[in-house]
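Many introductory courses stop at the sequence. We go one step further.
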Amino acid sequence: MFGCQTSETGLFVTQLADGIMGMSAHDATLPKQMYNKGKLEHNLFTLCFRRELSVSKQGVSAGVMTLGGIDTRLDSSPMVYAKNVASTGWYTVFVKNIFVRSNGGQSARADDELEQVVMKIPVDISSMNGGKGVIVDSGTTDTYLHKDLAKSFGEVWYEVTKRSYSNTGIKLSRDELLRLPTVLIQLRAYDEFPDPSIPPESTTGLVGPKLDPSSPHDVLLAIPATHYMEYSPSKDLYTSRLYFTESRGGVIGANAMQGHDVLFDWENGRVGFAESSCEFKEGENMIDPITGKVIDAGEVGENRNCVLGRPSLTYECRESVTVDDCLDDPNKNVAGFEKWTSVVLSSGTSSGMSCEDALMNNWAEEEKPEVSCDGSGLCFELRPCEVSCAEVMTGESGKAPLTPASPTEGGDICEDGLWGACDHTCEQSKIASTLMSDGLCHEVDELRQTRDCHIDACGRLDPCRVPFVVHAIIALRGGKAPLWNRRAEEVLADALAKTVDSEEADPGNEVLFGAGDVKVLLATSWYKSDLVGAEGVGEEDEEIGMKIVVEISIFNANAKFPEIVDVEQEEEEEEENMLSMEEEDADSNTTFLEKFDKVEGKVEEKVLEGKVKKVVKELPHGHPLSTCEESDFYPLAKTALDVHAELGREYFLSDMISNMKKYEILEVAYSEKSPFSDILANNELARESQVITSWTIKTDVGGGKVHDHSWDSNFRKFFDKDNILNYVTNIPLMTMALALSLILCAIGLCCGCSCGRRKRSGRNQERVALIAEKKKGKKGKYAKISSTGSFDEGEELGLESSSEYKDNIDSSEGDVEMMGEC
């Protein structure tokens, strides 16, 4: 994208910024151009602004911008959506109410409803939303609301603070700042008919029935004093940047967007808000939970290549040939192949390098081996080699026996039995290999394992496959985020799944999810300021532990696998040896897992034969989606509810940490290199840990709908099977219910008979009137018929309606059937 500057106004001479990048809903903006060129999958972006009390000409750490999608890893509440009332141009919301909440608070959800009183500011809706409307504009630093609010806002402000409201600087202590009112803005909801399963009274970011019973699903945007009060370090003053100056419309500026991940979704006509820290701490790295490596900021959102583990030797050259190959000349060398296996650590993105290409990239053109990936997280190389017939005949290489070697002798460590990425077959694999004295990693074949998984390539991008995901933020006191790695993720995922599905927690119930359904989105430090939700001013924040954002997939086993033809035929003469998908496509009811079970077996067979020709390729990001029935979702929604209930259990984290201690590689979890070492050794730290929040997302197109289950316990309690049994066996209660049912049935029966009698009476009167007209010699409608049966076009008769009705109809006057009364 190129632009041509024709003038310089000097507008930004005194500011750090030297220009503005337009991000509105216009064809000339960067996001729309990238979407038009196919560089972005969706026409949307998010801005996540950190909470910063002070500004500097040298700049501050501002947050994150995500193009073409939503990155929820730093969010602390579900994304809720307001309607964008403008089709183009500025993103515009409809403001319905303004509230002021006493005693502050950083979130839209009150910290203490008894001490935090919410007062409504009178709003003229037509004036507030007049003109261009109320726009959400990150390019405007401050927030500007309608001038008619100034007086009433000032009165409420004085009542709460006992000081007059103004936009001049004032001195405040930290405690005084935090006690200033929080401004709450009610925005019209995106959904005209909201999902009734989303409880507005408990979902952070929704108005709820207490503030507005008529629109409880509207969005509630919180602007705390730490956002609208700007601090000047040089003057040690706080200045309110909330202005009441607009004659029509208004601007929700960047200060109101602080502490929020804000979605600008042109594609679906909405603006989303999720409360978020938006913080990557200074000196703190974001860890890729798959590879365990630090994520380069330049890689976020870019095309990412497939990442493979170090190859391990599975079969040696002499194991690929037989004695029959040496019968004609026992002294010759025969051609064979070595089979090498690599674990897929990350399948990358569709526009990045595929796993097969990543394997081939390591070889010169003339040396390239045959490669294949089996779809369950493993890739194979068949490297040409030669072996003497003497080795084949004796089974001995004539070399010194191999012995295990230390990493210092052989270089990098080998695959250590950790699970690889979840591939498109909904399976992931792990292998264990040992570094030997020849400097090569040799696979211990009997330790290879494969398990089901429903994340990564088999995750939420296919709504039929994974219709729901449960997000949770777990804070572990004493955890060490900088030490996070792949092994730590496995320890957490295994303990999380075992704790939720333990017999002690829920005896007799089915497994809700497995360790392969848990994806760690982010592991970051947990700071003392997170406990109160406010940043310190010029203070050194204390790190107290680690926050982990996890996503749990709720998998639909009934999803049907779409028709895919992904067989490459590299040579005409080998066409009959290639894998045909026709047999699998014959059964339209074959499930996703069943179809790929067959594919995997054929791939493995061809690998052993040395004839693999890229039978199964990685599916592109936009592969055909699975199909399913709406009825599949109902039991899965209950599963998501059950998972949330377990996460909210009082002793859940204590049980999970106990399960961590039982992990098979205990010495690693306790080692100084483990992020869990302190918390596993100190029970007090375990008791101070907490599940901060959790929510469920339905993974339909456009981001899905959010269901925070915090208030579902009463619903679950009411419909508990023991309670239902108590209701049924309560004789007085059932007698009363039966009597009430009979009364309602009697009332309905009488009303129905009365209505039916009136309708029949009306019809009978009309028929009597028609009979009377016939007796008077009246003809029918439209035309007169002559005695000869022909039409007389010269005369058209209309049917006159009679106004004479009889109360008592004599059946002798015509064929009128009299019906009995009820």
